[in-house]
Amino acid sequence: MYDEELYKKSCDGPLLSCVLQEDIPRILAQVHQGWCGSHIGGRSVAVKITLIGYFWPTLVNDVMNFVKKCNVCQKMGSAQRQPTTSMTPILNLVPFAM
């Protein structure tokens, strides 16, 4: 406790401000969708939140669930690059013979 506010001591940075339950959705939305609208992944959002100076006990689980429910990320996610059918080998080797 410092000046009537609860903090958590981090091992490599400043004191992390403990967040109230009602502030969590706002912080998640601002970091994931706001500022530059980067829509980064769950672990990156969790790291950014701790670098900003916020903390709550279920941080990682809340961030992962929030990113999974993001509509823009689900629609514009990276396309699967694997072919839908198995590839067939080239059987005619005559054009490659020297």
From TrEMBL:
Pfam families: Integrase_H2C2 (PF17921). It comes from the Eukaryota. Residues 22-77 form the Integrase zinc-binding domain. This is Integrase zinc-binding domain-containing protein. It comes from Lithospermum erythrorhizon. The lineage of its organism: Eukaryota, Viridiplantae, Streptophyta, Embryophyta, Tracheophyta.
